[in-house]
Design brief:
With about 240 residues, the protein is an alpha/beta fold. The protein has one domain: Glycogen Phosphorylase B (Rossmann fold), CATH 3.40.50.
């Protein structure tokens, strides 16, 4: 897979703009509200970065475009993708599970299959836009498989991941049938960020118990198939707040 030109690539479920389809079928965009957009906009404008995400409209495929001095790369989702990947696995399985089973999570193989399929689509888009040695910053629970998928496609890039919702204790996370795959997906990143110390601790404990990896504080040591040292991953809290 070829390399792109952007030294910073942000990957999020949504683009920082909303699509507007007029009655005549023409397409326009307006800036979408949200904390992630507000937090990252100035970084993107100053870094000549690319933002990869879904437009918010199902069954709409559009080419990359520039808006508000940012290069935006839409990832197309079909109505079936939205139902299974977004409304299904992301919000019907992960959201309640990660919020201490605030509602009963549902576990369905087709939802998981859609989650993997869509995550690969995002990873491929990031791989195409990232320059050699670029930094790719992946956001939130909808895209937890992207780091490992991207590392497979582009081992030259640096990968960060930030989780914007809680990460549950092992006893709750272990209910997820695909718990090992999710942990392995996240460990594709070099740095994994959480809002709270307890979330980072929960993740490190899950890594230790589910994968048998060696951990020391926030540092996770990964090995290859022969047990030889591969690399370190740091998992720590980086709360978004105003000091």
């Amino acid at each position: 897979m070829g390399t792109g030109r952007y030294d910073l690539v942000v990957v999020a479920n949504r683009l920082p703009v909303d699509v507007i389809v007029a009655d005549d079928g023409s397409i326009d965009w307006q800036r979408s509200p949200g904390g992630l957009v507000t937090a990252l906009e100035w970084v993107m404008r100053n870094a000549d970065g690319a933002w990869i995400g879904w437009s918010g409209a199902p069954d709409l495929a559009t080419a990359p475009f520039e808006a508000d001095d940012m290069w935006l790369v839409p990832v197309a989702l079909s109505s079936e993708d939205v139902e299974a990947y977004y409304e299904g696995f992301s919000n019907g399985t992960l959201w309640p599970l990660y919020h201490d089973v605030i509602a009963r999570p549902e576990f369905h193989r087709p939802w998981w299959d859609a989650y993997r399929r869509v995550n690969l689509r995002f990873a491929e888009a990031a791989a195409e836009q990232a320059a050699p040695g670029a930094t790719v910053w992946v956001h939130d629970y909808q895209l937890q498989l992207v780091p490992a998928m991207l590392r497979e496609l582009r081992p030259d890039v640096r990968i960060g991941f930030f989780n914007h919702i809680p990460f549950p204790p092992l006893e709750i996370f272990a209910q997820l049938p695909w718990r090992r795959q999710v942990i392995q997906g996240l460990l594709g990143a070099d740095l994994i960020g959480f809002q709270r110390d307890s979330d980072a601790s929960n993740f490190v404990r899950a890594v230790r118990h589910l994968l048998g990896a060696t951990t020391r504080g926030s540092i996770i040591t990964l090995t290859d198939g022969r047990g030889r040292f591969s690399r370190h991953v740091r998992a720590a809290a980086f709360p978004i707040s105003i000091d």
